[in-house]
Design brief:
alpha+beta, Outer membrane lipoprotein wza fold like, three-stranded antiparallel sheet, 8 helices
Length: about 260
Amino acid sequence: MKKFSLLLILLFLFMLQSCTTRKQMLYLQDLDTYANSTLNYASTKVQPNDILKIDVSDLNPIVAAPFNNSTATFTSQTSVEMMKLTGYLVTPQGNITMPILNEIKVSNLTPANVESKIKERLINEGYLVNPTVQVRVVNNKFTILGEVNSPGVLSFTEESISLLDAIGMAKDLTYSAIRTDVKIIREFEGKRLVYHVDLTTASWMSNPDFRIRQNDVIVVTPNKLKANSGGVIKDPLQVLGLAISLTAVILLLTK
């Protein structure tokens, strides 16, 4: 009987260690504290391997046509892919090559800066009098790995999205995810930056660095139980079921 009691105590201690507390699970627990806080947005900058869609227009479409890669109009689901194929790929040196204007340095400039730079050249070099230039990155994507329900490489059309948007696109974190230390890995101006985000608080939400940008990588670490099990245990509730079943078997054998 003493052995049986000791076994029950050990099972209880194991379950206690493996359980996740409410404080570790809930998102944005102090959200009301940061209500009405100021939002800060930072424009993203063009990086190597970005694909730019550049449209040049003028009151006279004929004179603007030579500066556009393609004048075709695409519709349906394939339009984004077609824009990628006809867009301008930023080289590792940070350049693009446009018709007539040839090579243009665009890396570390915002899309608005690139628009101004191209417009200035068109005017100063006497090609167009009052052109309109629109620049957009069309291959925005991020990678999310680890304890999410749908990991992988996901695309977005905005200039940047919130971390919560990115997690939602991956169908939320799993029960085994550590919510107090979600990592964002970013390449910026030739450097690799790493940010650590505690999702249980709302203090990070006003920081523009924590918005997801082109080519970001999000890593969600598993808790100790999941990590130590080598991924065999998907959910701590499995441990509870196993413990109950084991206890029932022991009770039957000891009667």
